[in-house]
Amino acid sequence: MLDRIQLKKEAKEIVRNAKVSAYVVTLLYLAIVYALDTTRIYVNGEAVTYLENYFPTVEIPAFLLRALSIPPMVALFVAVVTSLLGTVLYGGWTLYHLGVRRGEHMDYTSLFDGFSFVGKLILLDIVIYIYVSLWSLLFVIPGVVAAYRYRFAVYNLCENPEMGIMDAIHMSKMQTYGYKMDLFVLDLSFFGWSLLGSLTLGILNIWITPYIFQTDLGYFQQIKTAKGIGWFPPQDDINDGEFHARDPFDPQL
Q1: Domain that holds residue 179
Q2: How many domains does the chain contain in total?
Q3: What residues contact residue 150 under an 8 Å CB cut-off, 6+ apart?
Q4: 239, 28 Cβ separation under 8 angstroms
Q5: Within a domain: residue 252?
Q6: List of residues 6+ apart from 184 with CB closer than 8 A
Q7: What's the pLDDT at 252?
Q8: pLDDT at residue 236, rounded to an integer
Q9: Opening angle at CA 184, ends 202 and 249, nearest 5
Q10: What is the DSSP string of 46-108?
């Protein structure tokens, strides 16, 4: 069992001591994500559908109705592009927080560093989506378990963009083996904060999102250390960091 309380305290300190404000970076990140989601919702006409279903007596604004005249192929293209941009942005968000945890100076522009290996980030997201979707066909629980199984794949790829996406996925499977319940309990412990974030129309998320994300990274680092698998920072007598792919808890690996 990981020390959740200690890891949360550590995450708070890391966020507060970031050389470039984690809160400002979070505001920028959430603003871009909101803009991408709003664009997709508008072009797909989802806002009109929502109003018609839940507020049938409300007059729909003309600018929302104009979205219904957008060709379906154009709407699909915009939806795909905004989704892919969100995936790459999440990669940059991860890189920022990994750098902050190492005590590095991470500029606001680090949010866009995911474009340096954009193809791998997108392909990894697609493969994970397919895997989780296939497991979800066996009912909800297998899909949830699969989501936890591949949870660290993006972290592995961001720590070493040179590795293959299947290697990142396989490494995540080994890392999360035996720790899925710990991660589930961690997510449950943040339910109250997430609810408060929703009640404040997302404003509170500017402060709680980096805290939650750093705590998750803390779990990632602790599990890597416990299992001896993943990327480890360079030692005094070693110039480069290195990956360890052998899982001491599985003699077959």
Answers
A1: 4-244
A2: 1
A3: 128, 131, 132, 169, 172, 173, 176
A4: no
A5: no
A6: 148
A7: 39
A8: 54
A9: 140
A10: HHHHHHHHH-TTSPPPHHHHGGGGS-HHHHHHHHHHHHHHHHHHHHHHHHHHHHHHTT----G
**Distance (Å, whole) CA 78 – CA 39:** 8
Provide block-wise average pLDDT over 10 residues at a time, the chain (253 residues): 89 95 96 93 82 78 78 90 96 96 94 96 96 91 94 96 94 94 94 90 92 96 90 62 49 37
Is the whole-model pTM more than 0.85?
yes
Q: Would you state the pLDDT for residue 189?
A: 94
Asked whether residue 217 is domain-assigned, the answer is yes
* Nearest-angstrom CA–CA distance, 144 and 122: 21
Q: What is the pLDDT of residue 250?
A: 43
Give the contacts of 239 (CB within 8 A, at least 6 positions apart): none
Cα distances (Å, whole numbers) of residue 107 to 92, 97, 104, 187: 11, 11, 10, 28
Within a domain: residue 135? yes
Residue 88 burial (C-beta neighbours within 10 Å; 0-12, 13-18, 19+): buried
Dihedral (CA of 21, 23, 25, 28) sign: negative
